[in-house]
From TrEMBL:
It comes from Nocardia mexicana. The gene is cbbS. It comes from the Bacteria. Heterohexadecamer of 8 large and 8 small subunits. This is Ribulose bisphosphate carboxylase small subunit. GO terms for molecular function: ribulose-bisphosphate carboxylase activity. The basic functional RuBisCO is composed of a large chain homodimer in a 'head-to-tail' conformation. In form I RuBisCO this homodimer is arranged in a barrel-like tetramer with the small subunits forming a tetrameric 'cap' on each end of the 'barrel'. RuBisCO catalyzes two reactions: the carboxylation of D-ribulose 1,5-bisphosphate, the primary event in carbon dioxide fixation, as well as the oxidative fragmentation of the pentose substrate. Both reactions occur simultaneously and in competition at the same active site. Although the small subunit is not catalytic it is essential for maximal activity.
Length: 140
């Protein structure tokens, strides 16, 4: 399964040069950049673990790329994404978010159906990866 999340989810994997170009764009827009990682990429899991603090004081993407590579080395079997936050008045939201790493094997999700009263059916998603405890998911 190929998880589709973020701004560039339907494009091929971004190279480090392309990641640097997107980070440069975010910095030119005065959007602080942060790095997050998880081993539970469920679509409703919006709160991933932060890698350090948001990078408020950077002017060049080299510092962000160094932090991305440090996160990759620490968590080689996790999903890693970059977020850029637009703090301008009236917006104050995530302006850009994209994956920079995914595990080599993505087991995917199963659709569960529960039937209830009066022929009602409730659907849900269950990630195969969550069957293992945190830290051991995706072969880590």
């Amino acid at each position: 399964m190929y998880l589709r999340q973020g701004t560039f989810s339907h494009l091929p994997e971004l190279t480090d040069a392309e990641i640097g170009a997107q980070v440069r764009y975010a910095l030119l827009e005065n959007w602080p950049v942060s790095i997050e990682y998880t081993d539970d990429p469920h679509p409703r899991n919006t709160y991933w673990e932060m890698w350090g603090l948001p990078l408020f004081d950077l002017d060049e993407p080299d510092g962000v790329l160094a932090e991305i590579n440090a996160c990759r080395n620490t968590f080689p079997q996790h999903y890693i994404r970059v977020n850029a936050y637009d703090a301008s008045y009236g917006r104050q939201t995530t302006a850009l978010s994209f994956l920079v790493q995914r595990p080599p094997d993505e087991p995917g999700f199963v659709l569960t159906r529960t039937e209830s009263d009066d022929r009602r059916q409730h659907y849900g998603l269950h990630a195969y990866a969550t069957e293992l405890p945190a830290g051991r998911r995706y072969g880590g």
